[in-house]
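FAQ: What does the model actually see?

It sees only this:
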Amino acid sequence: MTIYPKLLMLLGSGELGKEIAISAKRLGCKVVACDRYAGAPAMQVADYIEIFDMTNPESLKATIYKHKPEIIIPEIESLAVDVLSEIETEGITVIPNARATSITMNRDKIRTLANKELGIKTARFAYASSSEELKIVAAPLGWPVFVKPVMSSSGKGQSLVKSALGLENAWKKAIEGARGNSSQVIVEEFVKFDLEITLLTIRQKNGSTIFCTPIGHEQADGDYQCSWQPANLTDTQLQKAQSIAKSVTSNLGGIGLFGVEFFIRGEEVIFSELSPRPHDTGLVTLITQNYSEFELHLRAVLGIPIPEILLIKPGASRVILSKKNISDVCYKGIEKCLSEKSVELFLFGKPNARKGRRMGVVLASHTNIKEARIKADTAALHIEILEKPNANDSRKIDNA
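And it is asked to produce this:
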């Protein structure tokens, strides 16, 4: 019999971590929220807060020993992963496990695992450790190509390069946008696809693997902009996607929810990326399913049964992005955004903004996907992100 409360440690406290923390609290758990800055979203709902550089092995180890969590849930890739391997041998559970965390934080490792070891179809790719090597390996892939750091997230450092003339700038952008001290890039062929999807895949303690209904999504500059569920797949496409997702996640092992991304081209299903945690495109499940992706993740992590995953209603999401750098944010237009039924707004609570930073998401449901997407897009347009006024100026915003 499992005894609660359990102590969970979140390594990374962004918007996905915040929803994980909320789900954990509903199941009677205690949460330690860790991040590099104060006021991160998950810290707003956690029991304990730690602010430090998680790429520093000694700081990470000291924080873990201070709290002695039973379960560690990495929410970001920028971590001292060797510490997780060491901690795992001491009886602390790392989700999904330390090996999977290490492999998936590097585009080269997960791509090599899928393509070279498991024989799964991916976009053609190559690696380069200098701008000169990049010029050599990019040309055979055909134009355009994507150039990305092997270690990054949310599209940071990514470029779409249309000819050899753009490779030098793409190299510089990738190195500047990389996490840590990475000096290698991956260059990929540009795949012309019909649809891009996320297949949320859950590995349970009893060894069984289950799936959510596929989620369609669109990206810009490598970062998620909108998603919808269900995505329109044929039975053949769905079977292929599930087979590939099960193959990769079985190799990685561990427990929890994985976000597995695919390109769909005709009846081809092409593996793209994998996150060993709830996926940003899966925020839509907060309005569409009987269990959100966060609830599913926690149930799998804690060994709680998942009797059935049901798609209750079609739904869509649209992100809210900041248009500029803002040191202390506030919002306008919430009333208009929420004036239509079956629309929900999630503001993440990030204390400041930079241009292009994701600050919230609008969710909408309808009897069909087209109308749900229109509702989400329209509602999101009402939200305006502003610099928080001085106390004496607050009435100007209220009355604007």
